Amino acid sequence: MKIYSQGDQAIVVSIEKEVSKDLTEDLLALKKYLADKNYPFITEIVPTESDMMICYDARDMIKHHHIQSPFLYMKALIQSVQLEIKHEEDTMDPIEIPVVYGGMYGPDLESLLKHYKMNFEKFVKRHTQPNYFVSMMGYTPGFPYLTGMDKHLFVNHTGENKSFIPAGSVIIEGKKTGITTTDTYGDWLVIGYTPVKLFTPEFEDFTKLKLGDNVVFKSVSEKEMDLGGFKPCQS
């Protein structure tokens, strides 16, 4: 575990392991421990795929808690944490996301099939077989970065041009797949669409997926689901 400062009011804890569900659980356990302790000077905890940034109010620590060196205090605090983390097989069923692949719903799939030298059926099978896990949240509220994709589907390029990408687009980026939660504009490779809303700001629990959740994709036809509200990608 590596610990270093990020500016004068944040510390980063880096767990030097390959991205995995166990690593995500390590970070979530550390976040829960700190949250349960309710330290008054910790202002925000932001986990990513392989590390966690802990923001703190240095002025409050010095003025009200008589801590001379906030960074050294935080470093010692993190090093003192002893976590009992049991990595067990998940008993909860994964969250199923129905996807319409290709066509106007996945405009980049045709070119990807040529890149992979793969037919449509084989691609869909490879993309729907894995049990993915949410290794990071970001880009937009509720946007899940899903780790666990078949290595035969990894890519090292993006789309040729930036275009409008509607909420619900299933995308591939590098070694991961993801689902857009809001309308956006970019060069992600769009392979399909799901009508499942992952971001509902009007609700208190506004994200459907959480860090560490398991996800599986299910291929469906456009006739099987209500795709009302779909807006096609546009250049």
UniProtKB/TrEMBL annotation:
Q: Which UniProt keywords apply?
A: ATP-binding, Hydrolase, Nucleotide-binding
Domain Carboxyltransferase, residue spans: 1-209
An example Pfam family from this entry, by short name, is: CT_C_D
**Listed GO molecular functions?**
ATP binding; hydrolase activity
Family annotation (SMART domains): AHS1
Say which domain of life the source belongs to: Bacteria
Q: Could you tell me which InterPro entries the record lists for this protein?
A: CT_C_D, Cyclophilin-like_dom_sf, PxpB
Name the UniProt record assigns to this protein: Allophanate hydrolase subunit 1
The opening ranks of the lineage are: Bacteria, Bacillati, Bacillota, Bacilli, Bacillales
Which gene is annotated as encoding this protein in its UniProt record? kipI_2
